[in-house]
Automatic annotation (TrEMBL):
Any one cellular-component term (Gene Ontology): membrane
Lineage: Eukaryota, Viridiplantae, Streptophyta, Embryophyta, Tracheophyta
Keyword annotations: Membrane, Transmembrane, Transmembrane helix, Transport
Coiled coil: none
Organism of derivation: Erythroxylum novogranatense
Transmembrane segments: 31-55, 67-86, 98-121, 133-152, 159-179, 191-212, 224-249, 273-294, 301-319, 325-343
Pfam families the record matches: PUNUT
Protein name: Probable purine permease
InterPro entries noted in UniProt: EmrE-like (IPR037185), PUP_plant (IPR030182)
One Gene Ontology term of the molecular function aspect: purine nucleobase transmembrane transporter activity
Length: 372
């Protein structure tokens, strides 16, 4: 009987723990934020560059490229297994997965959005230089802001609004002068379709980030980082299903062996490109989920755009792409927008500390380093 009472108490404790607000000491949250920033940076810069290598040396499957952006989902099992072993050492009755049915369904829907966006972005990346595609995708920040306001009632400072405006105008400058950047052998129609696909992908990204934040906020469970990884794994799994079905329906899978044999860098390098491409995008999505967990979807959108200058430089260095005056203007506006946003965040944090206010901020995207 005593054993039964002990198990009941343990079970009750677990249920309460799942519903209580997540509590994390400041040092742990800062380290978690920095770790996810590193993952986000490596994935955001490495993913587009690695997959561009795929296209430059003979790769042609849009669906395969799309699949690579989500097929790395089993890598999430590694941190989940570590977390499970740690929890099990404290409580033998702990479960491996905590995600409930409503969260599972919401994550599945997010996966379908992600899968659609992956395909559209892959199509655009195949028709555009990586620098141009990245600059177009930077317009997602405006859509992140719009849907953040609609879905999670995000509040904005003048500095954030200025940053969004500058980043959007920067992408617009590129769009108005993009015809001179058309790759050799590609028709105007193909380039225009690729450009449109990249813009739609930016819109879907703008929906996805606030939607994930909404999922975290509306969850009936305690939103821990372990649960965030579970949500991440589910939505990537469904994005993989979406791309796999598309690949089968289009018969793209039949050309993989021939494509590998004719790949410009050799069959071994072909496999390396596929593996490292999937790993890079897995790091990107995992880092993105962690940044939203530590901060907000608006912060994730800003950081996603912040990596644009790095991708620009790497694309010019490694692929010898043109760096025209329009790109320089767009890049300058983007940097101006980044500085405006971070200046506003720093100023808001200083005012909060000066006024001795609670750690809850009303700026556009809570600073996870301050909000602990």
């Amino acid at each position: 009987m005593a054993r039964d009472m002990s198990e009941a108490v343990n079970s009750s404790t677990m249920e309460v723990a799942e519903k209580e607000p997540s509590k994390m000491i400041p040092v742990t949250k800062r380290l978690l934020f920095l770790l996810n920033c590193i993952l986000f940076t490596v994935g955001s810069c490495g993913g587009p560059l690695v997959l561009r290598v795929y296209y430059l040396h003979g790769g042609a499957s849009i669906w395969l490229n799309s699949l690579l952006q989500s097929v790395g989902w089993p890598l999430n099992l590694i941190p989940l297994a570590i977390s499970y072993l740690y929890r099990r050492s404290k409580n033998p009755n702990t479960r491996f997965f905590y995600i409930d049915l409503p969260l599972f369904l919401a994550s599945s829907f997010a996966g379908l959005i992600s899968g659609s966006g992956n395909y559209l972005y892959s199509y655009g990346l195949g028709r555009l230089p990586v620098s141009t595609a990245s600059l177009i995708l930077s317009s997602q920040l405006a859509f992140v802001a719009l849907f953040s306001y609609i879905l999670v009632r995000q509040k904005f400072t003048p500095y954030t609004i200025n940053a969004i405006f500058l980043l959007t105008v920067g992408a617009g400058v590129l769009a108005m002068h993009s015809s001179n950047d058309k790759p050799k052998g590609e028709t105007r129609k193909q380039y225009a379709v690729g450009f449109a696909m990249a813009v739609i992908a930016a819109i879907l990204m703008g929906i996805l980030l606030p939607f994930l934040e909404l999922v975290y906020k509306k969850s009936r469970q305690q939103v821990t980082y372990t649960l965030v990884i579970e949500i991440q794994m589910v939505f990537l799994f469904f994005a993989t299903i979406f791309s796999t079905i598309g690949m089968i329906a289009s018969n793209d899978y039949k050309d993989i062996v021939e494509e590998a044999r004719n790949f410009g860098l050799g069959k071994a390098k072909y496999c390396h490109v596929l593996v490292w491409g999937s790993v890079s995008y897995q790091l990107l999505t995992l880092g993105m989920a962690g940044v939203i967990f530590c901060g907000s979807s608006m912060l994730g959108g800003i950081m996603f755009s912040c990596f644009l200058p790095i991708v620009e430089v790497l694309a010019v260095v490694f692929f010898h792409e043109k760096f025209q005056a329009e790109k320089a203007v767009s890049l300058g506006l983007s940097l101006w927008g980044f500085l405006s946003y971070f200046y506003g965040e720093a100023r808001a944090n200083r005012e909060m500390m000066t006024n001795n206010e609670p750690t809850t901020t009303t700026t556009s995207s809570p600073n996870p380093i301050a909000n602990v």
